[in-house]
Amino acid sequence: MVGVQTKWNKVQISATIYPEHAKILEAILQGNYSKPIAHQSVSEILRRAIELYADYLGVQKIKELGGVG
SS3 of 3, please? Predict the structure, then answer.
């Protein structure tokens, strides 16, 4: 995975994923998922996945670490 700083204080991430994960993302975006999905972009899906994984690992919230969030 590679991150590149872009305009507006954002980081663009390029990542290689397994084909089955790409199929899951596509199914989510097409609405072919058993649970309601509130996100309409891969960026939002990845953001939520990162948040859930951080919670699982016990990572402190950004505000608690003194950053923006």
Answer: strand
